[in-house]
Design goal:
The structure is a single chain. The protein is of the alpha/beta class. Helices cover about 40% and strands about 15% of the residues. It has a single domain, classed as NAD(P)-binding Rossmann-like Domain (Rossmann fold, 3-Layer(aba) Sandwich). A 7-stranded parallel beta sheet has the order 3-2-1-4-5-6-7, with helices on both faces. Strand 1, helix 1 and strand 2 form a beta-alpha-beta unit. Helix 4 packs parallel to helix 5. The radius of gyration is 17 Å and the shape is globular. The relative contact order is 0.15.
């Protein structure tokens, strides 16, 4: 039997990149998956179709992470569709790389709204439906623990906030058997940070393995934390960065 059989997962920002890889992997492990997307309905539909072609169950829900009402409605729709909620993956996030002095207040607000406020709102909405023994998984960042390069001040600060949110929340929900963990990727080859991009050379050089990670490698860690073998791991920051922070 698949290790996530009969489980239901909600993944935010699941139409592309790391989020899509997570949605596909959780479905492959037996979970019914709901995921949100901001704008690209065609990309979201493609993820649903791929999951369904492999025998899984998935729905895509349009919900911008900055819109609290939309996020709350997405949680309700996921619960109403599948009848339960066992796993929440807070994946939706953004970065606006540039020197801090050149960063506008509007840009800072956007990064905070998606990376912190959106995570808070989604988690709060999900907790009333989350099954005892459930899983809350954040997708943080290795730069939330160690800033290795300039140009990421608001992003690094928000991911550090996610790290402490994880640790603090784990203390509040542990009595229900719910675990809360933070997966911290390093440089991952996605359309937002391609391995062939302008920022790639220094990022590769910063890792011990000398390469970008694959979205599937992050999804593998998420799947492990979501599964039964990780039942005693909580409040942890699990860095998957090719040794960048070593």
């Amino acid at each position: 039997m698949s290790k996530l059989a009969q489980k239901v997962a909600l993944v935010t920002g699941g139409s592309r990149g790391i989020g899509a890889a997570i949605a596909k992997r959780l479905a492959a492990d037996g979970a019914s998956v709901a995921f949100t997307y901001a704008k690209d309905a065609s990309a979201a539909s493609a993820v649903v179709k791929e999951i369904e072609l492999k025998g899984g169950k998935a729905i895509a829900i349009q919900a911008d992470a900055t819109d609290v009402e939309a996020v709350e409605a997405a949680v309700e729709k996921a619960f109403a569709t599948f009848g339960r909620l066992d796993v929440l993956v807070n994946n939706a996030g953004t970065a606006i790389p540039k020197p801090f002095e050149d960063t506008t207040l509007e840009e800072m607000d956007r990064v905070i709204d998606i990376n912190v406020r959106g995570v808070f709102a989604t988690t709060k909405a999900a907790l009333k439906h989350l099954s005892d023994g459930g899983r809350i998984i954040m997708i943080g960042s290795a730069v939330g623990e160690r800033a290795i390069a300039p140009g990421l001040v608001p992003y690094a600060a928000t991911k550090a906030a996610v790290r402490m949110f994880t640790q603090a929340l784990s203390r509040e929900v542990g009595g229900r058997g719910i675990t809360v963990n933070n997966v911290q990727p390093g440089p991952i080859d996605t359309d937002l940070n391609p391995a062939s991009g302008d920022w790639a050379v220094p990022q590769k050089a910063a890792t011990a393995l000398g390469r970008y990670g694959r979205a599937e490698e992050i999804a593998a860690m998420v799947a492990f934390v979501a599964g039964p073998e990780a039942s005693y791991i909580t409040g942890a920051n699990l860095t998957v960065d090719g040794g960048m922070n070593a």
